[in-house]
């Protein structure tokens, strides 16, 4: 046990982790540097970061351009307020840039420091929107089971993974969850949502929030036509549709925004992660012109919502440079092409290894399920810990992925940096195959 481990155990409470395990074993890896799709730990071991760390390092590690953009902005104006009547150039430029990248009619941005703040902000903006239109009873928010929207007050309540509610002690009243699209077709998923809206009382529902692809729930890709029907259903009941693009934004799914894969335009988009590729904390909420118009006409007095770091100039400068790289290097199309190759490789594994069940990917967001019987989708007993053992075997081979075990279903998730090349995808697939065969 080296001194870093001891100091870590003593002083560092890690996010989303087991404190007991940390005390017993200390951190498994202490990273020191990163370059491209690879990370290096303090012992010099190299890892392929096949999760883009937390689904966020789109342009890869160690990009000097971003360090320069941050340093230049820090030297000029590291921070200044965007509250009240103050503004600054990086914030203005970034709002304009994101509006230009977003689907039609989404042209105004409220900045935050990350995904949880973005979803809490979106939910507050939904309340605000209905309140100023004299519809304060439209306070309820419907999300999906197995969704992940973050860990702030409202985003925890919107999250559809109950373990997160226990930590909050209580959830906010007015949140409920409809069946996810997992192993479902559009018709039954939509009728489940319709039933939920009817049960809640359509006149009391303010918004429906969903990730275009449910990430932390196990990379759940919706069936064809689902989001078109969601749009229709929300319009039918006059409910706002918020797309949580915290994972799917900025090229992850082979389109600039994930929802574009299904030709649907939401009323709000929340984003974070890939907007800066993790080089600085920044997120935000894009709102439609129609909502913005209502705000402009009817929002009297102060909007009592804002973070010290809303639109942070240095984070904004970093985001601008990151988006510039995503565009100039054609990373959105590249993600689409590499995603196809990744999916082809997953399908080959499915054909060759009998414990590989469902496989899926959209752009560079993918998953492989491991099952006892791929014909019947029978799960492995939970105590076998199949997915965690595959992750461990991958780790030994220097690949970082994430295991999701949900209701006993073993899922291995993948979200490599958008700069991954064909050879590196082959390397990933080979090591995945070896790891599955080792555990099988
Ligand atoms: N929404 C989604 C879809 C996410 O995956 C996450 C984080 O993983 C969040 C929101 C929360 O973002 P943050 O961790 O930046 O608060």
Automatic annotation (TrEMBL):
Domain of life: Bacteria
Gene3D superfamilies membership: Aspartate Aminotransferase, domain 1, Type I PLP-dependent aspartate aminotransferase-like (Major domain)
Keyword Transferase set for record: yes
CDD domains: OAT_like
Keywords assigned: Aminotransferase, Pyridoxal phosphate, Transferase
SUPFAM superfamilies found in the cross-reference section: PLP-dependent transferases
Name of one Pfam family that matches: Aminotran_3
Presence of the UniProt keyword Ligase in the record: no
A Gene Ontology molecular function term of the record: pyridoxal phosphate binding
Family the entry assigns: Belongs to the class-III pyridoxal-phosphate-dependent aminotransferase family.
Name this polypeptide is given: Aspartate aminotransferase family protein
The species this protein was found in: Halobacillus mangrovi
């Amino acid at each position: 046990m080296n001194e870093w481990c001891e100091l870590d155990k003593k002083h560092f409470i890690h996010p989303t982790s087991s404190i007991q395990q940390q005390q017993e074993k200390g951190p498994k890896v202490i990273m020191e540097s990163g370059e491209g799709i690879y990370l290096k730990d303090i012992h010099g071991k190299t890892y392929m970061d096949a999760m883009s760390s937390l689904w966020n390092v789109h342009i890869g590690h160690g990009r000097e351009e971003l360090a320069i953009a941050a340093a230049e902005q820090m030297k000029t104006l590291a921070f200044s307020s965007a509250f009240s009547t103050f503004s600054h150039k990086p914030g203005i430029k970034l709002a304009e840039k994101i509006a230009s990248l977003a689907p039609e009619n989404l042209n105004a941005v409220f900045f935050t420091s990350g995904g949880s703040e973005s979803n809490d902000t979106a939910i507050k903006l939904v309340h605000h929107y209905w309140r100023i239109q004299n519809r304060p009873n439209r306070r309820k928010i419907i999300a999906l089971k197995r969704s992940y929207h973050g860990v702030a007050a409202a985003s925890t309540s919107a999250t559809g993974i109950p373990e997160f509610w226990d930590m909050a002690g209580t959830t906010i009243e007015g949140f409920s969850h409809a069946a996810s699209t997992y192993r479902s077709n559009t018709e039954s998923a939509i009728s489940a949502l319709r039933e939920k809206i009817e049960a809640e009382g359509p006149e009391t529902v303010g918004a429906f929030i969903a990730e275009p692809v449910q990430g932390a729930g196990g990379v759940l890709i919706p069936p064809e036509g689902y989001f078109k029907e969601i749009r229709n259903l929300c319009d039918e009941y006059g409910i706002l549709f918020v797309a949580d693009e915290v994972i799917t934004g900025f090229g992850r799914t082979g389109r600039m925004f994930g929802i574009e894969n299904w030709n649907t335009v939401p009323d709000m988009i929340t984003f974070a992660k890939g907007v800066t590729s993790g080089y600085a904390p920044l997120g935000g909420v894009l709102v439609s012109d129609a909502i913005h118009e209502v705000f402009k006409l009817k929002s009297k007095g102060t909007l009592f919502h804002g973070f010290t770091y809303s639109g942070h100039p240095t984070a904004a400068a970093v985001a601008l440079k990151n988006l510039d790289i995503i565009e100039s290097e054609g990373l959105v199309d590249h993600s689409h092409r590499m995603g196809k190759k990744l999916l082809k490789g997953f399908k080959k594994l499915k054909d060759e290894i009998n414990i590989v069940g469902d496989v899926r990917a959209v752009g560079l967001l993918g998953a492989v399920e491991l099952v006892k019987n791929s014909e019947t989708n029978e799960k492995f007993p939970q105590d076998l810990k199949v997915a965690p053992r595959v992750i461990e075997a991958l780790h030994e081979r220097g690949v970082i992925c994430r295991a999701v075990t949900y209701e006993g279903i073993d899922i291995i998730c993948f979200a490599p940096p958008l700069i991954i090349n064909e050879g590196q995808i082959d390397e990933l697939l080979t090591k995945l195959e070896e790891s599955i065969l080792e555990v099988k």
